[in-house]
Every structure is written in C-alpha cells, then in structure tokens.
Amino acid sequence: RSRLQQATNPQIELTNAYNTMYYAPVYTGSDNQKLSVVYDTGSDWLVLEDSECESCFGQNFNTTTSSSFNQLSDIVEDRLYGSAALKGTRVTDKVCLNADNEECVPIFEWFLIESQTGLPSDIDGILGMCLGLPIDGIDYEAGPLYVDGLKNSSIIDERTFSFFMADNPTQSFIDFGEPRDAAMSNPDDLIYVPLVKHFFWLGIWTGVRFGEDSSRAYGYSDSPAIYDTGSSLLYVGQSQSDAFFHELTKDQVAEYYSGFYLTSCDKTPWPTVHFLTANSTWMAVEPSTYLLNAQGDDTEGADAGICIIGIVPNAADYWLVGDVFLRGFYSVHRMDDMTIGFVPHQGSTKPRLSDQGTFPEQTLSIPYN
C-alpha cells in the first residue's frame, strides 16, 4: 500500500458474548487464518494460540501453512493477563483486519502461545491496544502495538480507535482512525476526560453519586481508574470498596457470595451510579447495564430471575473500568492526545455526560453507629 494512498479507517464488527466479552477476528499468515481475539485496551502484545498448544482451544494458528511466518526467538517467555497465564515465543507474520488482503500489517511482531491457562474457549488470543507509555520506576518496555502497525502501514490516518459497545442484539464494532459522528447519539455531547501518562488508559476518579439526589454524592481521594475493554466487570478500588458497597446495597436485597453480590433481576429499585472524573465530569452506569442475568432470562419485575451485580470489589487499590461501564458508550481513544472521549452511542439509553460537576461535600465512608 502506497503511503500516498488515502487511509481506509476500517470498521470491524464485534461479537458480544452474553454482555461479558467482546471479540472479533484477525486474519493471520499468508493463508489468512481466521482467529478470534479480544481487542483489549488493557494489554500490549498480540498473542495467538499455536495449533501445537495442547492446553489451547478453538481454531489456533498453524505455523506450517503460512509461508510468511518467521520465528524470531526460541526463548520461551511468560505473559500474565489477570487470571490467564501464557507461555510462548516471539514471531512475525502478516496480520489483517479482513480476509481480502486489505487492511493488513505485512510484517508484525507478535507472541505465539505454546501453553496457557485461563483463556476462554471462545477466543484464540488477545490483541493489545493499551496506551503503551513508560511507567516511572518500572523497568518494562511495551510490546508492539497493532494500532501502530496500522498507522505505519497507512491503513489509518491517526492513532485513534473507538469502541461502540452495545447491548445484544445491537451490533457492536470498533472504528479505527477518525471517529464517526454517525455512531454517536449526539456528537456535541462527546466529552474528553484527561489521562495520566502511563502504560494503561489511566484516568483519575474522585467521587461517586448513587442516583440523582446530591445527598447521596460522595467524594474520595484521587483514585486511579484503568479503562479496560478486556475486563467484563467494574472493579472498585480497595480503599473505597467497603463504603461503596455499603451505600450501593443499602435498602436493597442482595447477598454476597464468592466475590459477587447476587440480587433479583428486577432493576427498578437499583440506582444509576455516577462517577466523577478529575476534570469534574460525571459519567454513569445504569442498573440495566450493571445487573447481569445469571440465567439468560430477561423477565422483569416480581418474576425476574437472579442477577449478578457486575460491580465487584478489587483486591488492588485502583478502579478497573470494564465492559459493564463501557457498554452504552462510544468511547474514542486518542493515543497521540493521550485522552479518551465518551458519548452515548447511537440508540443508547445511557445518560449524557455532565462536565459541570462539583466535588461532593460528603466523604465516601461507612457511617459509624
């Protein structure tokens, strides 16, 4: 592809797996092998399972049928992804967004998985889309980022991508390059939130409000919040966790079991939860998004089934902002500007962001009785 050619800024469709995971194909090798991957803003490398991997499931990548495959090293390395642990080696090959040999990075370095634990059987790998900047005090160099490969191959005109994360059965997708106004409920409502220079898409959250009444708005000390499309749930930072769940479940019927709160799928009594960012922007997650049906039954009201509350305690002292929060948004990730913009996507019921927030007078804490 000539660098004088106009970038195509492709769009790829995402499969929504029960509102817990979004994935899409990549086409790899000279023979365009189709593999399903999570497009993950919480990691760097593209990692794909080897067909020789005995602990892997799904399609996997057959190195012997791709004439463009190149093994860079025989050194086996470890990579950790939350509950997943991978072993493998560094390789290069062609990696495309579609099967017709367009929108390809012709020689891209990635990680071939030789053994693994923790990856679900629905997927064959992970495509990292983190911000990838150095972290002060940590000796780690980010792996190759596929978005950089797309930009360097003139597939996209800028290092920007946008997630349209919808509820089923609405089609979800990723736009690469310049965001599309048609995907937004109202382009004028797009608001950008500041990030910290970091490996992750890392912002700062400073407060929370339960419902619309300011009497249930609480501030807390600046807390890191990682926006992560590869995580299903919204994890509450450890130092805010006890007080947060005390307030969320107050006057509600909910039972804590094996790390999750369980409740009826009747969404009526549950509040919309609003979070305050460092630039005084309120962003919301609704009960229709954070109550996840455990039985695949959408019955409402008194006959509703059992739901998992998709907001859970984090063992670490940061917020991990996954799909439970991101669903309903069109989220614009601008790597060069180091910022994320949020706007309800077309057809979403999510409230628009408010950038007129003030820091709450109350502190988030458990009342002493």
From TrEMBL:
Q: Which InterPro entries match?
A: Aspartic_peptidase_A1, Pepsin-like_dom, PEPTIDASE_A1, Peptidase_aspartic_dom_sf
Q: Name one GO biological process term.
A: proteolysis
MF terms (GO), sorted A to Z = aspartic-type endopeptidase activity
Which UniProt key words apply to this protein?
A: Aspartyl protease, Hydrolase, Protease
Gene3D superfamilies, per this entry?
A: Acid Proteases
Q: Would I find Protease among this entry's keywords?
A: yes
Residues forming the Peptidase A1 domain are 22-343
Q: Which Pfam families match?
A: Asp
Active site positions, chain numbering: 40, 228
Does the keyword Protease feature in the UniProt annotation? Answer: yes
SUPFAM superfamilies the record matches: Acid proteases
Q: Which domain of life is it from?
A: Eukaryota
Q: Which family does it belong to?
A: Belongs to the peptidase A1 family.
How is this protein named in the record? Answer: Peptidase A1 domain-containing protein
